[in-house]
Amino acid sequence: MPLMQPPETVVEITRVLEAAGYEAWCVGGGVRDALLGIPNLDWDLTTSARPLQVRKLFKRTVPVGIEFGTIGVLDETNVMHEVTTFRSDVETDGRHAVVKFGESLEEDLARRDFTINAIAYSPSRDELRDPFGGQRDLAERVLRAVGIAKERMREDRLRALRAIRFASRFGFTVDPATWQAILVSAPHLGRLSPERVQQEIVKTMNQVALPSTAFRMWRDSGAFGELVPGLAGITDVELLALDHLRLPQLARRPQRLQLRLAGLFSAARPGTVHAMLKALRFSNADAAWVGGLVERWHEMGRGMKNELMHPEAPTDSVLRSWAGQAGRTQLASLLRIADAHWWAERERGRPAPSRERVESVYRRAIRIAYRDPVEISDLAVNGDDLHGIGITGKQLGQTLRALLQYVLEDPSRNTPDVLLSRARGDA
Ligand code: ATP
Ligand code: MG
Q1: How far does residue 220's CA lie from ligand 1's centre (Å)?
Q2: Do the bridges between strand 97-101 and strand 120-122 make them parallel or antiparallel, or are there none, so unpaired?
């Protein structure tokens, strides 16, 4: 058995490069994850061939990062594999390295960020090159910078956030010198672009099973203070809630991401979240969805909790009013956020609604939200109907809201006759 088996398409790329007289090695996440026994389809390659030579050797290539020496090679199934020429960075400004092509694999591995990411594998030789003890650190479950941690993080401040992400993703401890370097880096993180910071938050949400471990380090290192000050005071219970957020099993990734973002940003003060997300360059759609959900949580969380702590189950009318206030389509997400927070509170020995109560109310509330009239657009009358009986201007909106309230109490009232006569009486 070979030490590891990269996908055949990747092995084929190394064969082509070697047949042309160049060195070719698998590096980075693919090798690391193979050693951990975790599947990873994304295998990067490093080679002694220069970018133009790589382009000549393969039929279909993409100049993904040609200025950094990276060429994308497309295989028959249109999957792209990144082939990067050996590099040795010479100068940096804290993020962007001035790239110089290197002469050897060892030089290339030395400029990589962490020991576990600096292991190379050659399929033709069935040989690992691991000059910085990456395999030992994998076995000991330690995340450690290659070389002198403070210097490596001064070269590129993004490494501080990457360190936190990799450590929490694999459940590794951070080597003390590497942690010290993260602390020293924190005050300088402001030089990272908001897009980069957003990308790190998104990758963390997508890759880390227990996000509290990552964001606790963002808090404790001072990274939040520098990058997302509104989250600098996130509490341990609020962090823990992130781990308990039950993500919809079948939902697409963007929905899971949005829900996790709402979980994280529910720790920020009311009225601040939309602007924070825009500052991090999240899309208008994400900022609106996440911001809206967090505001609903702030408005409704306490009342929902009181209602569920009560020995008697909430009435249908209460659940309809929740659906009306949250919006039918947001209600499930709001209840998931609530469930996560209450779970975390119970775990810390604080009073919060029981698991069983939350589960049964969740099922009932969703059923009711899609069965009963809960929004103004569900009413049996609309603005034109009210106009027809002489209700206009500001009064029109008020009347619609009053009618909704009337219907939330008893959905059988939702007929044109009942509502129009009620509206006449009110007006
Ligand atoms: P993932 O599974 O998340 O893709 P990865 O280790 O492949 O993990 P990438 O961001 O794809 O991470 O980078 C590929 C490799 O490039 C890393 O393993 C590391 O060796 C190197 N690398 C990436 N970013 C940096 C950086 N900022 N500084 C130094 N080396 C880096
Ligand atoms: Mg990768």
Answers
A1: 24
A2: unpaired
Range with the poorest average pLDDT among 165-179, 187-201, 238-252, 326-340: 238-252
Percent of the chain whose predicted confidence (pLDDT) is above 90: 91
Fold assignment, 1-140:
Beta Polymerase; domain 2 (3.30.460)
Per-residue pLDDT reduced to its tens digit, 42-55? 999 999 999 999 99
Please name every residue paired with 121 in a beta bridge, in sequence order, or none if there are none.
26, 128
Strand partners, 120: 27, 129
Ligand 1 atom, smallest distance to 158 CA: 27
Residue with tokens 């609106």: 288
CA contacts within 13 A on the Cβ side of 130: 16
Q: What does the pLDDT look like over 270-305, one tens digit per residue?
A: 999 999 999 999 999 999 999 999 999 999 999 999
Q: Give the C-alpha distances (Å, rounded to integers) separating 387 from 382, 421, 423.
A: 9, 14, 11
- Asked if residue 306 lies in contact with residue 272, where contact means CB atoms within 8 angstroms, the answer is no
Cα 163 to chain center, whole Å? 16
Q: Which fold has domain 142-222?
A: Hydrophobic Seed Protein (1.10.110)
Angstrom distance (rounded) from CA 241 to CA 132 = 37
Confidence of residue 251 (pLDDT cuts 50, 70, 90): low
Cα dihedral 211, 213, 216, 220, rounded to 10, equals: -140
The beta strands (E) that lie in 181-335 are given as none
Q: Which residues line ligand 1 (CB under 6 A)?
A: 28-29, 40, 42, 44, 112-113, 117-118, 156, 158-159
Question: CA 17 → CA 77, 85, 112, 354, distances in Å?
Answer: 20, 11, 22, 61
163 backbone dihedrals φ, ψ, rounded to 5°: -60, -45
Verdict on whether the full-model pTM lies above 0.85: yes
Q: Who contacts 276 (Cβ-Cβ below 8 Å, separation ≥6)?
A: 228, 230, 265, 268
- Name the residue with the closest Cα to ligand 1, atom 13: 28
Residue 25's nearest CA partner among 40, 12, 14, 36 is: 14
**Residue ranges covered by each domain of the chain:** 1-140, 142-222, 253-371, 380-424
| Cβ-based neighbours of 143, under 8 Å, separated by 6 or more | 114, 116, 137, 163, 166, 167, 170, 172, 173, 174, 175, 178
**Ligand 2 geometric centre to CA of 12 (Å):** 19
DSSP 172: P
